[in-house]
Amino acid sequence: MRRGRVLLGFGGLALFLLITSVRGLARFWTDYLWFDSLALSSVWTSVLWAKIGLGLLFTAVFFVTLWVNLFIADRLAPKLRPPGPEDELSRRWQQFMGRRAILVRSLVSLLFALLVGAGVSSQWQSWLFFTNRVDFGIVDQQFGLDVGFYVFQLPFLTFVVSWAFAAILVIFVVTTIQHYLNGGIRIQGQAGSRVTPQVKAHLSLLLGLLALAKGVGYYLDRYELTLSGRGFVNGATYTDVKAQLPALQLLMIVSVFCFGLLVFNIWRRGFTYPIIAVGLWALVASLAGTIYPALVQRFQVEPSESTKEAPYIERNIEMTRIAMGLDQVTSRDFNYEPTLSATEIEENLATVRNVRLLDPAVMRDTFQQTQGIKSFYDFRDIDVDRYTIDGRTTQVVVAARELKQTDLPNSSWESQHIAFTHGYGLAAAPANAIDANGRPAYALADIPTNTRDGADALAVSSPGLYVGEGLKGYAIVGATRDEVDFQDDDDRTEVTRYDGADGVRIGSFARKLAFALRFAEPNLVVSNELGSDSRILYKRDVVDRAKTIAPFLRFDRDPYPAIVDGEVKWILDAYTATDMFPYAQTVNARAVRSGDLRSPFNYVRNSIKVVINAYDGAPTFYIVDDDDPLAESYRQQFPDLFSTTPPPVELAEHFRYPEDLFRLQTDLWGRYRISGAAEFYDAAGAWSVAQDPGNSIGQTAVESVIDATGKIISSSEVRIAPQYLLMRLPDDDDESFVIFRPFVPFSDDDSRKNLEGFMVVHNDPDRYGQIEVYEIRSSTPVDGPALFNSNIQTEEEISERVTLLNQNGSTVVPGNLLLIPVGNSLLYVRPLYIEATGTTAVPELQLVIVGVGPEVVIADSFEAALARAIPGLSVDLNAGPAQEDATVSSDGEDEELDDSDGDLESDDAEPDDKSEERSVEELLTLSADAFQRADAALRAGDLAAYQQWVERAAGYIAKAQELLSQSPTRDDSDAA
Hints:
Elements: H1 2-37, H2 41-75, H3 87-97, H4 101-117, H5 124-131, H6 147-181, H7 197-224, H8 238-264, H9 272-301, H10 305-308, H11 310-323, E1 330-335, H12 342-347, H13 349-353, H14 360-371, E2 377-378, E3 383-389, E4 392-400, E5 402-403, H15 413-419, E6 423-424, E7 426-430, E8 444-445, E9 450-451, E10 464-465, E11 474-477, E12 483-487, E13 493-496, E14 504-505, H16 509-519, H17 523-526, E15 535-538, H18 542-549, E16 554-555, E17 560-564, E18 567-578, E19 603-613, E20 619-623, H19 629-637, H20 649-652, H21 659-672, H22 677-682, E21 687-689, E22 702-706, E23 712-717, E24 723-727, E25 736-745, E26 757-762, E27 771-777, H23 785-794, H24 796-805, E28 810-814, E29 818-822, E30 825-836, E31 844-852, E32 855-859, H25 862-869, H26 920-939, H27 943-966, H28 972-975
Parallel strand pairs: 1-27
Antiparallel strand pairs: 2-5, 3-4, 4-7, 6-10, 8-9, 11-15, 12-13, 14-15, 16-18, 17-18, 18-19, 19-20, 21-25, 22-23, 24-25, 25-26, 26-27, 28-30, 29-30, 30-31, 31-32
Helix pairs in contact: 1-2, 1-16, 2-4, 2-5, 2-6, 5-6, 6-7, 7-8, 8-9, 26-27
């Protein structure tokens, strides 16, 4: 019975190992098939051979080295030794070995070789860098070596030396054990006869090699001082140069001396010299390598840190700017004027026309409710881009209507993997326009896709989205049944057949079995829906697809869709990064909430743009920065991966400077704008990114650092997020699509909130990546975003209107606070959305706050608010045809309102037309009636009608006040 259980257990274990092994082989084969389907098998094989080659090489070296040492140990086994208590063990071991010596020696060597060499294949990236070095043309200030040595060669050399030290140590231990088993070492016995002279010589030589490997390690450690984090800044600072570097040089000499002692000990009796060598090394390592640098740091550097560290701070500033792409920043003055005239608006009409009223963060719910159409369609993210609409470059908010796999009509395998395979089209709206209800004025919308006149650039000819954000699992195309192309609002279903190039053919039984094992899905083998032309699509998430193809790159967290020649292309920013750039500051990536830039680095470039066709999944990797040595090295490593032609202009027009990279650069620039070491140390003139007003009026957002127990360790105000803006910068002739972030003076307690400057990076193809910083020049303090947001709360009119709208089942949702340079002045804009409570709430733009200098106003539209803030403004902003239902005159009064809902009676629609015929009493009666209608509309949840009636009532009251002011004052006789 017991034997049966044992056999059953072993059988179960064997079955588990078999299945695991077979699944591993299936994944290995299907990975190759996937790369081959994309014509990128050379990338897969290059990585594979690099891993295999490294593993085999180091495993073979260790195997041969250990085998030879074991062979020597056997040859040095004593033939005759004085009898002792350990002879029996030695005798039995030698009997066991007998003719098996070669086999046992080989098995032991192989076992340890596999253990020691197993992890070497993980160094394939370091190996490819080592063999494809590209010079930076920049030398470090301490050793005068090109940065390429540190980035491409030092990591692999350091690994080899560390591996060699560990390997020799393992060989020493195993060889010592073999000598003991062979009788060459006795633990018991007389002191002089415990180790034979031959064994002592052998072990002394191994110890000498160990010391030599340590010496080479010390030699390489000198170069790693340029990455030290001991001092005030990263790099080899005072203690590293004056204490740690001499200590390492001394330890190198000691290591070589110990090697000599251990080799000399071959001809000496006993282990006196090895003991001296180890003791000497331990003493010097402790005193010179640890204690002395600590004393220098404490008693020389800390009392006068700014003076001691000054030259090294200057090195850090120079190299950090280069490493983070901040060495080519163009600084300009912004001669601030507190007022903004109508003339300046006319001169910057394109900037004002393109003020972004639609906040992407708020608009997601609106897009989902108005354009989701079906529950299984989802807008995961709203992105900002620019397109030509009505002949003008217009900022657009755009989102992909993706498949929501968790909300399909049914959860059958056929439905999930064969019927519903893709999302459908995009929705896009000008960021500066709304319809009569305060919702996006869509230029691209609906199912099937509908593009309005004048927006041909948004037309989509291939709306199927087979690759997207967050698409998981796999889909089968080319099955015996059709796919569901889309379902519209009328429950009409259209079917389609995929005719793209993506996917792996799955017609043969072997491939069906392989994929069934990979996905643990037997239906892939037994289903009758799969035919000879069927293909399986997998790795359909944009970021996952790119990472699988190029695991050596870092990728941005936010891919975005672009329409290029009627096709939907996903654009994903890829970064080349390293943490081996000498003297550069390691980036604090806390500002990046997700993505590959969260792991440490001190050099980064956005040198590669990945473009993936949303329909056929075809990836294209473009190198857009030919001056990046890392990108050039990758080109040498994987020549078939990168496009040999530049991106087409129509595609490059949609490239954006990545937000996460800009976050890190602006965070660094606040301190690294300072060139002098003393000023840098004292943070004199340092900036911080401006505080974020958050999603409330009058308050800033706060983030806290919390420990494992839930205790708040520290709190600080959140920094304002980068914003994409379409505007004309000072001294420019045309508007540019830029990413923008403002600065305030640095303060430990975030108390300083006046505007000091702002940074922009150009996104247009002819100026892409150019960084400009504008420093505010003003005789009086200029409000930063947080101060302006606080000022909003003090405006009585704004406070009253917001309070009123926050009642009766609705909530005010503030949008992004936008700071927009216009001429030599600054324009603050903050849209306010009204959202009714409930699960299907749709935020609608109903109010806009505008600020110019000390003036802060609110109105029902941006045009009206701008007209109130800037006296004499008479230009027609012409935000777009979508505004024709609610055009606004220059004085801010509504000229025409939409009566289509039937609640606004025609005789009251235009109160000003009959103002001369109505008395004050009639106007007040009409205003009271309008307020009653507004209350009724609000209770009914019709926010658009509510706003119209409130505005109408205000118009009646204003006209009544005007009539009262024009009436002559009556005297006593008249009263009589």
